[in-house]
Each structure stands twice: as structure tokens, then as C-alpha cells.
Give the backbone structure.
Amino acid sequence: MIVYPNAKINIGLNVLEKQADGYHKLSSVFYPVNELCDILEIIPAKHFSFSSSGIAIPGNSNICVKAFELLKADFDIANVIMHLHKQIPIGAGLGGGSADGAFALKALNEIFKLELSVIELEYYALQLGADCPFFIENSPKYITGIGEKMRNINLDLSSYKLKFIFPELHISTAEAYEGVIPSQPKTNLLDLINQPIKDWKTIVKNDFEISAFLKYPQLAKIKVKLYADGAIYASMTGSGSVIYGVFVC
């Protein structure tokens, strides 16, 4: 089976508070982006193996392997051969790794006919990472908590064109959170998203931009350039470093 884990963008991202366990409470809107995707192939086999190509993946263990190990521990499933062709930039705020893990769970569920529900798949996905449950249903959602609380929203950007700028810059999650100061916004993000897109420029903010733009001024220049080119909304996605613009077609 071949699946295509897609990216996501954050439309607004508020860091509300830091919990005692070190995690941060957030509010954000996640929107799936099908124009950017990885390619994951999974085939049942006698012996397990994982390989990858494309963009180099740091670390010794991939999230797709972790997804397999989670299900293998609870279900009598065969080994598989996994190959991931990585195309979504890493450390870019696009959720590529989270998508890979979630799509691996969904593919394994289908291959082995486990008949796991959406809620059950989201349970396993949360064990892989806070952003992973979003990619189970893979539809626009208002996200709160550490990323595990999701509410469906009616948001459709299909009549607009998204443009992405990919800086040669990797911002780790740890680095991003070091520079952010948690605060409570005056207006709930969900209320702001319901305003016309042309108004988002002045009201919908990503809290990570403040410190990221100070440390990496080239990111701020990219956002300015997107607006100069006619974007009706532009933002850094996630904790960076990719900047996207929303354009009228």
C-alpha cells in the first residue's frame, strides 16, 4: 500500500501557558495542505525493515517505525517493509513527521483489517506526538490543549492559492519554545478565524513569529515580501521556519 502523508499549516498559533509537565497549552487552527506530501509504502513481509530516501531524516528511529511498534504490541500483525520518501521539509512547521506517523497507523489499520475507529486511531496517534491525531481525520480543526483537543471547523481555502517560501533554516521545537512568552489573547482564535480572510492580516497571529523574526530577520522579510506580492494573509506556520501566503486566484 502506498499513502501520501500531507503537510498542514497553522492559521494562528497562540501559546497560552506552560504546564508543570513542561508541555504548553496552545490554541491554533490546523489546515491540511495536499500540495505538499511525503510518500510512504508499506508491504507485509516476513521480516521488518524500514528505509527512507529524499530529505535526510535525523535520529536513529523514525516515527513510522514507532507507529508499527505501537500496533504490533497490541495486535497480532505481521512484519512489514516500510519505505518513506521524505519531501516535506523537516523543522519547518509543516507537521510532516506527525503526518508520517498518523498515515502509517491508518495504512496498517487498513492492511491488517484491524477495524480501529477514528477515536482509537487518535489514541495511538497521540502516543506518537501531540500533532499526530490531527492527521487521522485530516480535516480543518480548531486545536487546543497540547494539540490533542480538536474541534471540526468549517474552513475552505480551496478557492485561494497558497504559496510557500522555504528558507534554508531549521528551527527545532526546543529552540522555538525558548523564545516564546505564553499569554492569553484578548479574543479567542476561533472567533478571529470566522472573520473575513482579508481581516486576518491584523488580527490572526502566530506567537512564535516574535522571537523567530528577531533571531532570523530574513523570515520577517519573507513575510513582508509575500504581502508586497499581493497576499491577503501571510504567516509563519507552526514554530517555523516556512512562511506561507494566501492569494486570491
Residues 157-248 form a domain with the Alpha-Beta Plaits fold (CATH 3.30.70.890).
